[in-house]
# Entry
Amino acid sequence: MSVQYTRFLSNLTAFMRASEIRELLKLIEKKKVISLAGGIPDPSLFPIDDLTKITQEIIINQGQTALQYAPTKGVTIFRETLVDFIRRMRGIRVPNPECIVVTAGSQQALDIIGRVFINPGDVVLVELPSYLAAINAFRVYNPLFVGIPMDENGLRTDILEEKLKILKNEGKNIKFLYTVPTAHNPTGLTMSIDRRKHLIELANKYDFLIVEDDVYGSLIFENVDVTPIKALDKNGRVIYVSSFSKILAPGLRLGYVVAEEPITDIFEKAKQSLDLHASTLSQFIAMEAIRRGVIEKNLPRIRSEYRKKRDIMLDALEENFPKGCSWSRPIGGMFIFIWLPEQIKTHELLSKAIERGVVYVPGRPFFVDSTGENTMRLSYSYPSEENIRKGVGILGSLIKEELK
Ligand SMILES: *Cc1c(COP(=O)(O)O)cnc(C)c1O
# Structure
C-alpha cells in the first residue's frame, strides 16, 4: 500500500508555489526552442579566466579558512570589503560590517524578510507587476498582497498614498513595500528620483518599511540618475537587497542585505537555522574579484553587450509587432515588457508560440491581482542576437494572426 504523504504536510506547504517560469523552462529544456523567457545572464560574459585564477589561489593560499565554517552574517573581511564596494558602486554609506548579512543569493534574503516580518494577513505592498520569486517567497507567510500600478516613471506613489489611507482606515497592519526601483523585473522600468523621495516620505508618514531590491543598479546603460532609495533614506526605513548574480555569476549564490543593526541581528538568527552561513568559498571568491577589480573591469563589457542586445530587441519589436502593442524601453537590466491588445491572452498563446519554436513568459503570474493577461516579458540578456531577431519575428507573426 502506498503512503499518503499529504497527511504529514504542514499548513505552510499550502502557500508554496512553484515558479511558473521555472516550470515552463523545465518543460522546454530538451526541445529546440528560442528562449526569450528565462531571466538569466549571458554566460559568455562570466570572467572565467579571472575566476579560475582566483579560485585556485584562494584554495592554495587560504584554503584552511576559505573551506572552513564562517560567521552567520558572513566572512568578516568580506563584509568589510563590501562596505567599501557598496559605497563605491551605489553611493550607500554602510555604518559598519554588522549592518550587512551575506545571503545565499538575494533570494534567501527575500525569504528571511518574509519570515521575520510577515504574520498572516499583514499587508505587503508590491508593484503591479512584481518580481515573481519575491511574490512566491512572501506568499509562504500568507500576507495580504496589495498591488500598486506602475507607469513609465515606475511605482505610482500617488496611487500608493490613496491605498495607504484606505488600508490605515481599515486598521490593516502594513509591514513593508517591496520594490525593484531600477531596471525592474519584469517591466524594465525605472522609478524617478522624485518618486523615490515621495516613497520615503510615505514610509515615514504611514509607518512602513521599504525593501529595495537593487540587483540591476550597476547594469545601467544610459545616463540616468539611479541613486538607490537606501542612499536617500535618513531614518533607517530601507532594507537594501542586492546580489552578485547579475554582475559576477549566479552560480556563486551570493547576495546581501544592508539594514540597521537591530534588523540584521534578527536576520542573523533567522539565517542561522536556514544554513548557518553562505558559502565561505563563494565569499572569498567574490571578495578577491572585488579586490582585484575583476567586477569593475568586467561591468562595462556586460553593459555594452546588454545594451546592444536591448537595441536589437527594440528594433525587432518595432519591425515585427502590430499596432496596438506597446512595450517598455529599459535603461538597463535584462527585460522588455509588452502590453498586447486586450483580447490576446498570453498564457493561452504560449503553446502556439512554443510549437513555432519560441518561448516567452506570460505576464499574469507577476500580477498579485491576476490581471496582466495581455502582457508578456521578454529577456534579451541570454539569447544570441540572431535568436532575438528570429524569436521576436515569430512572435510578431503569431500575434498578427491572432488579431485577424
Ligand atoms: C535576478 C534577480 C535577483 C537575483 O536573485 P539571486 O537569488 O541573487 O540570484 C533578485 N531580484 C531580482 C528582481 C532579479 O531579477
